[in-house]
Write a structure and sequence with these properties.
Distance between the termini: 51 Å
CATH architecture of the largest domain: Roll
Order of helices and strands: EEHEHEEEEHEEHEEEEEEHHH
Number of strands: 15
CATH topology of the largest domain: SH3 type barrels
Number of helices: 7
Largest sheet: 6 strands, antiparallel
Helix content: 25-40%
């Protein structure tokens, strides 16, 4: 820890690490197979905030059916701490490493953590292979409102795959089919609203131009009113 003199001549502490390294964030621990719950217990003993998402499953044994709660992401446990304190988590028995690239660990946003929590609580979340391609939809109503994913099927109920690109993992949730809308349709509806606001303000704008401004729709809609 370095020190420097303040204006009055008294020494003050200066951290050698960037402020970003000192801010608690959600990281992902890669752990040994079938050791997720033991790692979660070890993190708890060290006072480290953690999250081990599990789902309900039924397994058929020889003589009976058994209800289990296996991890939603096998081999992964989420931990929230500052990067400079990572050794506290990495030295927990059965922890192998932080998930990420060669250059930096993956950081999970608070929104993604909430997606997982809500998916477990309200969407009967289950593991699913990682998907990046497919019909993208947004959930428009209910406890999972705002979550985006890829539509698997839509009959009476819709099954949506939510992909976490930061860790290349996915999980599936079930929602009412009436609560799902294609993202292109949702964007078109927003564009129509923006075009109407622009017309009221005296600005002529085509639908194509409105769609081209997609990334700016939210700000435009908020300032147009």
């Amino acid at each position: 820890m370095k020190t420097k003199q303040d204006k009055k001549g008294a020494p003050s502490s200066v951290s050698p690490f960037p402020a970003d390294f000192q801010e608690p964030k959600w990281y992902v621990l890669f752990v040994r197979s079938n050791q997720e719950k033991r790692v979660a217990h070890g993190l708890d003993e060290r006072g480290i905030e953690h999250f081990l998402p599990c789902y309900q499953a039924v397994r058929q044994w020889k003589d009976r059916r058994v209800k289990l709660d296996p991890p939603l992401f096998p081999g992964y446990v989420f931990a929230r701490l500052a990067f400079i304190e990572r050794i506290r988590a990495l030295t927990v028995p059965n922890v192998v490493s932080l998930v990420g690239s060669k250059h930096a660990p993956s950081v999970i946003s608070e929104d993604e953590i909430q997606w997982i929590r809500h998916g477990i609580e309200h969407g009967r979340a289950e593991p699913h292979e990682y998907l990046k391609v497919g019909e993208r939809v947004v959930i428009t109503d209910g406890a999972l409102s705002g979550m985006e994913g890829i539509l698997l099927h839509k009959r009476n109920g819709a099954r949506i795959v939510i992909s976490l690109d930061s860790i290349a993992r996915s999980f599936a949730v079930e929602v009412d089919a009436a609560c799902v809308k294609a993202i292109s349709s949702a964007l078109h509806g927003q564009a129509a609203s923006y075009a109407a606001c622009s017309a009221a303000a005296g600005e002529k704008i085509s639908m194509q131009e409105t769609l081209r401004r997609g990334p700016y729709l939210a700000g435009a809609l908020s300032t147009a009113h």
